[in-house]
Design brief:
heterodimer; A: alpha+beta; three-stranded mixed beta sheet; 25% helix; globular; B: 186 residues; mainly alpha; 9 helices; 0% strand
């Protein structure tokens, strides 16, 4: 910093040195004598990742209003001949494939964590309230599976790619272990993926050209208003799928989403009767949450809310 | 970080959307905070910053390699904030949108005279500086811009920026000496 000439600079330094020790730090920062610019990152207003995503999507729309609409005018070949024959053939195909395509599902009830073994030898640990489903050909001609909720996947290596479809996104896997979190009742419709072994490719819908490649210790996320998933970010391995050890980790999450998580984890019903608070966010970590009540109590204290027990859970009010 | 930003700027000039998105994610929060100091409303600050990024994209081919894209954004945001304030001079009455109330509450108890020297107190001294001095000082110390960049934002010469900052420091020094005297008397 060169606010003063050299001579004056010396006298400022001397003056600061004469002041009380506890004040010196502030004075050095003010006068640019500190090791780095003073007060940087002194942000008074918190901006969540979600707010940034939404703002960016608004900017995208302003930049290219035409590109926002997908071009859906591909050529579709209507079969004009022998409609009856065609209908019969289609019916036959439906009957024949109905059995194999009938979805198999695994579900973890509220309050529990479940492990599902898949026909190809892969396993999925399911967080409370989560569900996976796949068809009868899984493990033979395809390895496609759909996820609602949160699961930790350990995937067997095989030639057939392992595809997880979650809330309008796809995760393509070779042989690896990763966590996917994708609740359709999350207000932001967010899907998050974090990889603890190997690598995956993560993209919206079937738009592989927008894929983000995630390696060990990397994560990404996508929500409906975004064009492509955010570039890979680092995540500590032990932070991945902490729910498997019954930990709770809320990183700048909406209260609404936090209460949903508590509902699933502890199998209780939580009524948030403070609508103005639904958009509030909170960061909190519990290594051993004792009960839903202990967590709700903390949240209410921090956010200035009240709570009371109900027949099957709690109500939270202002 | 500075290299990152200049790197992105070069790519943005070549219409690289990924670089644009990265720059946005990096600077959006700080710029909203910056704009809030002028317009005092988060939603308006957010709009202004978003418009400024749209403008940056539209003008990307004129981004020159040496000029700071950071200074460009701060300048655009600042000009738009000043325009907004001019056009809405009578409407701005106070805090809205849940602006820094939280921060205020936290330090309320330390806000009395005779309290320890702290950020809150220093920020109040800074708020009371003359406009131009305060702006130059905040851009330099809060936003971490160098004098060249501050000059680009405020559209004055680096020399003038330096004068503003030195004048601001002199005033702050006087405030501090005053504060120490008062404290002794308490």
């Amino acid at each position: 910093m060169t606010d003063y000439g050299k001579k004056q600079h010396g006298s400022v330094k001397k003056w600061i040195a004469e002041q009380e020790p506890k004040d010196r730090k502030f004075l050095r920062e003010l006068w640019g004598e500190g090791s780095q610019p003073a007060f940087q990152q002194q942000e008074e207003i918190d901006i969540t990742d979600q707010e940034i995503d939404q703002a960016l999507s608004r900017v995208h729309q302003a930049i290219e209003p035409d590109e926002a609409r997908e071009d859906n005018t591909g050529n579709f070949n209507v079969f004009p001949l022998w409609p009856k024959l065609a209908a019969a053939a289609i019916l036959l195909i439906i009957l024949a494939t109905g059995y194999v395509l009938y979805p198999r599902t695994h579900y973890a009830p509220y309050g529990e964590i479940a492990t599902a073994e898949l026909p190809d030898g892969s396993t999925v640990q399911l967080n409370s309230g989560s569900e996976i489903s796949y068809n009868g050909l899984f493990g033979t001609t395809n390895r496609e599976i759909s996820l609602e909720g949160e699961g930790y996947f350990s995937v067997r290596t095989a030639d057939e790619p392992f595809l997880v479809e979650a809330n309008k996104t796809t995760i393509e896997v070779m042989g690896t272990a990763f966590n996917a979190r994708s609740w359709t009742d999350d207000p932001s419709e967010k899907t998050e993926v974090a990889v603890s072994e190997g690598s995956v490719s993560f993209f919206p819908g079937s738009r592989r050209e927008l894929a983000v490649r995630l390696g060990e210790g990397e994560k990404s996320r996508w929500s409906s208003e975004m064009e492509h998933p955010v570039p890979a970010e680092e995540i500590e391995l032990e932070k991945i799928a902490e729910w498997r050890d019954k930990k709770l980790n809320f990183n700048n999450q909406h209260l609404e989403a936090i209460f949903k998580e508590l509902e699933r984890r502890f199998d209780v019903q939580i009524d948030l009767e403070a609508e103005s608070m639904a958009g509030e966010t909170l960061t909190a970590y519990y290594s051993e949450p004792k009960s839903a009540e202990s967590v709700i109590e903390d949240i209410c204290r921090v956010k200035g809310l009240n709570y009371a027990p109900t027949a099957n859970g709690f109500r939270v009010y202002e | 970080m500075a290299e990152d930003i200049q790197n992105w700027a070069a790519k943005i000039a070549k219409s690289d959307r990924t670089a644009f998105d990265s720059l946005f994610r990096k600077l959006y929060p700080v710029l909203v905070n910056f704009a809030c100091r002028y317009v005092r409303q988060k939603s308006i600050a957010a709009d202004i910053v978003q418009e400024s990024f749209v403008k940056l994209w539209e003008k990307r081919d004129t981004l020159n390699e040496n000029g700071s894209v950071k200074a460009y954004l701060y300048r655009t945001v600042r000009n738009r904030c000043l325009n907004y304030k001019r056009d809405h001079a009578k409407e701005i009455v106070g805090l809205d949108d849940g602006l820094p109330q939280l921060a205020d509450n936290k330090t309320e108890s330390e806000n009395n005279t005779g309290a320890e020297l702290n950020m809150k107190l220093i920020k109040r001294w800074i708020d009371e500086l003359p406009d131009r001095q305060r702006e130059a000082f905040q851009l330099s110390r809060f936003e971490g811009l160098d004098h060249e960049e501050v000059a680009g934002v405020m559209e004055v010469s680096p020399n003038t920026v330096n004068n503003h900052i030195v004048a601001a420091l002199d005033k702050l020094r006087a405030r501090y000496n005053n504060y120490k005297k008062e404290k002794k008397e308490v």
